[in-house]
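Retro notes, structure queue

What went well: the backlog is down to a handful. What didn't: a couple of records were mislabeled last round, so from now on we paste the full input next to the output in the thread. Example, using Bifunctional folylpolyglutamate synthase/dihydrofolate synthase from Candidatus Acetatifactor stercoripullorum:
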Amino acid sequence: SIDFSLGTRYYGYVRLTLHTIAGYQMENAALAVRCAEVLDGGKTISREHLIRGIEKCFWAGRMEEVLPEVYLDGAHNEDGIRAFLDTVKMDGWQGKRSLLFSVAADKDYGHMLQRVVQSGLFDRIAAAHMKNKRAVQLAALDRLFLRYPGCRYTLYDNVDTAFCALLEEQRKSRGQIGEERIYIAGSLYLAGEIKELLAHD
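Corresponding output:
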């Protein structure tokens, strides 16, 4: 959870809680509060409504914990990846981190992957080919990974296999120093595939 205070026109300073680890959602919450103030003028939305409303907010696919220590983020462009990496950097996790990554071919995936690798946040990266016809080919990702000697990555023909492999590694790490947390990012299509897999399990 994230606790923060916000100065408002009609409600004074309010202490708000977001049930997410995504720091960028504070900006979204602040914008939502400002919109409520402008549209309502403090007439019908009480301070308590505001606090409870923000506390109950849920953003699917935005640093969503879909399984214990498995976080799904819909970051699908360079700005999204930047916000995702900022959140991962600040999330306080002390163990290992793995990333399941896939991307659409029409995105600037070279710069996206560069940001991911150069962040140094992930102990391993599983790059998977999505079912979607817009998915980048694994050979293209492989060529990019080769630019970064020392980057630990594995290519997978499909998302299902990649996800299962990461879950198995996470299972093995439980209870040990360096327990593993899994992150999933790079495409909304990838987020959709993961949601579909989880719905069938």
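Agreed that this is the format going forward. Reviewer comment attached to the example: The chain has a mean pLDDT of 93.
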